[in-house]
Amino acid sequence: MTPPLLELDLAIQGVTALTVDSNRPVIEEAVIGIQGDRIALISSTADAPAWTAKRILDLPGHVATPGFVNVHTHAILSMVRGVAEDLGFAPAYTPGIPQGSDVTPAEAYALSRLGALEAMLFGSTLINDTYVHADVTLGPMAEVGLRVYSCGRIHDVDFTQVSRGELTYDPAIGDRTLNAALDLAQQWHGAANGRIGVQLAAHAPDTCTASLLRRVAEASQAHNLRVNTHLAQSRLEVERVQARDGMTPAELLAETGLLNERLTAAHCLFLNNADIQRVGRARMAVAHIPKGNATGGTMAPTPKLRAAGARLALGTDNMHADMVEVMRWAIAIARLQEGKVSDDWQPHHVLAMATRQGAQAMGLADSIGSLEPGKKADLAIFDFQRPHLTPCINPIGNLVHTAQGRDVQWVIVNGEIVVESGQATQVNEAEIRAEAAQAAQQLWQRCSK
Question: Which residues form the Amidohydrolase-related domain (predicted)?
Fold first, then answer.
């Protein structure tokens, strides 16, 4: 008896699939079948069952990957693109450039949509974004087409003074920012068929007092929300926390109940050996920002962190959103520290960091992060017919070492095509670029007076 045809909404055939599934990491001449928002079929063409589809994309010479999961970004900070990279410090701590407290809701709206658009065009299907005016930006970012987790930064420091080197704390600020985050989660977490979510964004150990960090930990448990933060991102942070609390930033997170596997902490540059072991035992996720850190002359001890048990994922942080470039920097930074090319740091490791391990950090490993039947249909498809990707002897090697985010031609989120032939399908790109450029110009003009 002939089995019934598998009826698909969308079929992609002729691609090389980099699945990030250890059972079958590479499938040449693949067919990927999508029903609704899920992957229903992934197989070589020769082994696939009989199928029919409402739409077929025939894409020989292309490479499909899981959509990238960018676990740490600040979309609005495109406003300091090309400037903050050369100032030597994180924008919030840097005088002479626009600060979050300077950004109006309208400017946040325009700039955040630009950041979301850029990330999606480069193959990210999820961004975990934090900054200001999240109540204004979260919905509009998701309307661009990708998955968006967001939260306003939680802190009790007066951020209007931080860039001047002054840290003063006000419990009322902590109340306001934490309550705003919880209100955001109540309104948005799980919305848009699961494309929108909230993590509690405790800004950093030096901008949050111990009492506020404890409240964030309690709120995380009470509301079943994950937490993200910055950790040991500067020597100054370490010095300030040591002086204020008599412990390292990692010890402070442990003391306040935040250092656990539900935490994602960005940077982790200035951890001592005891702290590396501490975060490793906690199975904390590290949001590794290799390019951004290297631009500032620093690098996270990722080989030691992974050996200690920490889970590594990738983020772009500020000023750009190309996760392919971040993968390339991640493998280079690790090899520089090891002083060699080893089996421990190969292209498939950093591809997993950009996809499956990012999904694990977000608590979404059951639904995204690899190309497997039953998972959400989140894909990025690269055109490998370009000179810098020819010849293609090892597609994972080509992807990590020579590809670029701008090689992405198709992006699919929840089974919907949101980038087609390199162009966004849900929004007007020119309008978003123009509005963001105008917002940044107004912001810089106002802040320079």
Answer: 64-418
